[in-house]
Amino acid sequence: MKIKPVNSYNEMSKLAAEIVARKIKDKPNAVLGLATGSTPLGMYRELISMYKEGKLDFSKVRTFNLDEYLGLPPSHPQSYSYYMHENFFKHVNIKKENIHIPSGNAPNPTQECLKYERQIEEIGGIDLQILGIGVNGHVGFNEPDINLKALTHIIQLADETVKANSRFFKNIDEVPKMAITMGMGTIMRSKQIILLAWGLEKKEAVIKAITGPITTKVPASLLQLHKDVTLIIDKRIYEKLKEDRK
Ligand code: F6R
After folding, report:
1. Which pTM does this prediction carry?
2. Distance, CA 141 to ligand 1 centroid (Å)?
3. Is the pLDDT score of 204 beyond 90?
4. What sign for the dihedral angle of Cα 91, 96, 101, 104?
5. Is 143 a catalytic residue?
6. pLDDT exceeds cutoff 90 at 33
7. Which residues surround ligand 1 with Cβ inside 6 Å?
8. Which of 7, 65, 67, 83 has the least CB density, counted as fewest CB within 10 Å?
């Protein structure tokens, strides 16, 4: 794991956007795995700026999002589909047919998971996966448990996740309790991964992910087994990590 400590949210966002931009320049039809939530918003803003300045072309880029709430249609303002369009896709020249997000209102969610996994496989896998991390160590919506599923699947969200994500909804009861998520196997098969973490509330999860035992109780700890992971993390978390290692 490569660790890049950063002093600010902006520095994290810029660094992440540079890695994405480099990938697209090397491979114009790169397959990107994308995340939602607060963490990557700055990175999307940076990528949009690069596009507007004529430095980046998304016309051949293909994308697969990590997850989507079950039961929310793409038109719902809290769906991840809506988030992606509002915060990124509508501002760049990505082609609609190259965007993939699991459908939260598919008539048969199990079939939707199988279809999504097949699409990722058929395209040749993900070249660069962007990840955030939950306060409980989840990646995508792979929640801590005694076992994890490898492939795209339906998952019940952990109470901590429902609570953390309730900040986007009018009240906690409106937060969907189920989601579709790529599995840890889907994520681990990505050729390159960057994980972003900003804010001290992520401290424990990040430290466990980096230095703790590899355990399904901290899904992000499985990333220790991947050969090309870059962690762009809050310097304050990094300092704590160094202290613990003394
Ligand atoms: C989002 C996702 C989640 C988030 C994580 C952190 O698509 O898969 O794993 O990355 O919950 O969320 P934020 O960035 O809002 O703290």
Report:
1. 0.97
2. 8
3. yes
4. positive
5. yes
6. yes
7. 35-39, 66-67, 132-134, 138-141
8. 7
Q: 173, exposed or middle or buried, with CB in 10 Å at 0-12, 13-18, 19+?
A: exposed
Would you call 136 a catalytic residue per the annotation? yes
Complete DSSP assignment for 39-82: TTHHHHHHHHHHHHTTS---TT-EEEESEEETT--TTSTTSHHH
Domain 2-245 fold: Rossmann fold (3.40.50)
Question: Residue 245 pLDDT > 90, yes or no?
Answer: no
Catalogue the E-assigned strands of the chain: 2-6, 31-34, 62-65, 67-69, 99-100, 128-131, 153-156, 178-181, 192-197, 229-234
Residue ranges per domain, the chain?
2-245
Amino acid (1-letter code) at residue 155? I
**How many angstroms separate the Cα of 145 from the Cα of each of 137, 138, 217, 240?**
11, 10, 5, 26
How many Å apart are CA 137 and CA 140, to the nearest integer?
A: 10
Report the alpha-carbon distance of residue 172 to residue 162 in Å, rounded. 7
